[in-house]
Amino acid sequence: MSMLEKVEACGVVAAIRADSSESLIEVAKALEAGGAKFIEVTMSTPNALKVIEALADTMGDRVGVGVGTVLDPETARAAILAGAEYIVSPTLRLSVIEMAKRYSKMVFPGAFTPTEILTAWEAGADMVKVFPAGRLGPEYMKDIHGPLPQIKLMPTGGVSIENCGEFIKKGASAVTAASCIAPKKDIAAGNWDSITRLAAQMIANIHAAR
Question: In sequence order, which ranges of the chain are alpha helices (DSSP H)?
Fold first, then answer.
């Protein structure tokens, strides 16, 4: 399977933030144990590039390590050199897509309107990150797929363990999850078993919806 096929098969990309590389690696281990094998380290994480490098070195053979909140091509390149296998952006920047493709990496650019979504797809997006998806809900996936059925959609923002299945039923290829499967309180308390259970429940709901 290609990495993109593996993302779709898993159904969820976990976007996580932590105060240190050590705690983030523990979160990644907990998520992997629950079946969430794609970990997105956001650039808002302290020392994000070092965290990506540490996670790629430690778990790169077991999970897909990506970078999120990428706003420019320079950041994308730096993250790729640190070990990121895919690039995620909250907005549509064609130069970020171009940089990812230059290095043969997957890219999930953010878009909201039908025009932005189609533009991202035509520019080479592997999936389009529909953000903020919570504003319009799962039905928006169906609305977009009416005229644009070929585009792979990844709703982000407002996705929860409870509604992730609805997003899949309405046409999403995968979803992005953050605090719903890696709550800050669990990270702070080192409650890794709870994170594993939440990840497993979300993936079970996604697979049931299919």
Answer: 3-10, 21-33, 48-59, 73-82, 94-102, 114-122, 139-145, 164-169, 184-189, 192-209
